[in-house]
Design brief:
- It is a single chain.
- The chain is α+β, with helices and mostly antiparallel strands and 188 residues long.
- It has six helices and six strands, in the order H-E-E-H-H-E-E-H-E-E-H-H.
- A six-stranded mixed beta sheet has the order 3-4-2-1-5-6.
- Strand 5 and strand 6 form a beta hairpin.
- Helix 4 runs antiparallel to helix 6.
- The longest helix has 19 residues.
- The protein is globular, with a radius of gyration of 16 Å.
């Protein structure tokens, strides 16, 4: 089991990269009335067939050649279900994939959210040519980040420049704090 949700996000985002995505979305939302935190990673990659969708939640199914098992999606699924949450996967070949895990916010077995800013910026640094969109909503707060919008404002300065990527990390983490402070116990 991963120690926090952000590590699951990083793993699933890497799946999106391997699937040939040019745009990766991350949406995290809290529904306080249902005591649920929903984490969705979406992409416009190659997608999966219905048959492969049925197999993909098994740790023994992977398209990678470096190992014979694929643990990312099954572990993401388990981490949500173990704390009273849920899991869903939608995919269409040639269109993309959307994977969601729900977590019981107050469940003692829910792993912490982790460093979402670090996860997103790490993926940006690895694959700066892709578009990344992050949306966060909790309570009355809403936050949105889009890497291509930031690049347009940078007017030729690379998003991977040290000062810029550090700002992006801080900006996303400020969004996490604004959206989930008072909702998630680990956000003070």
């Amino acid at each position: 089991m991963m120690r926090d949700i952000s590590l699951h996000v990083m793993d699933i985002m890497q799946n999106s990269v391997r699937a040939g995505a040019t745009k990766i979305g991350l949406s995290i939302s809290a529904d306080v009335s249902k005591d649920m935190l929903y984490v969705t990673i979406s992409d416009n990659g190659c997608g999966m067939s219905e048959d492969f969708i049925q197999k993909v939640i098994s740790p023994f199914t992977t398209t990678r050649t470096t190992r014979s098992i694929g643990l990312g999606i099954p572990m993401f699924k388990l981490s949500g279900e173990i704390c009273g949450g849920c899991f869903s996967i939608k995919s269409k070949e040639g269109v993309g994939t959307e994977i969601t895990a729900g977590y019981g916010i107050s469940n003692i077995d829910r792993i912490p959210l982790g460093d979402i800013g670090d996860t997103v910026t790490g993926t940006i640094l690895s694959h700066p040519d892709l578009e990344y969109e992050v949306t966060l909503s909790g309570g009355n707060e809403y936050f949105k980040f889009n890497s291509k919008e930031i690049e347009r404002q940078l007017d030729g300065v690379s998003i991977t420049e040290f000062e810029v990527i550090n700002w992006v990390k801080e900006y996303i983490n400020e969004g996490v704090e604004a959206a989930f402070k008072g909702i998630l116990v680990e956000i003070n």
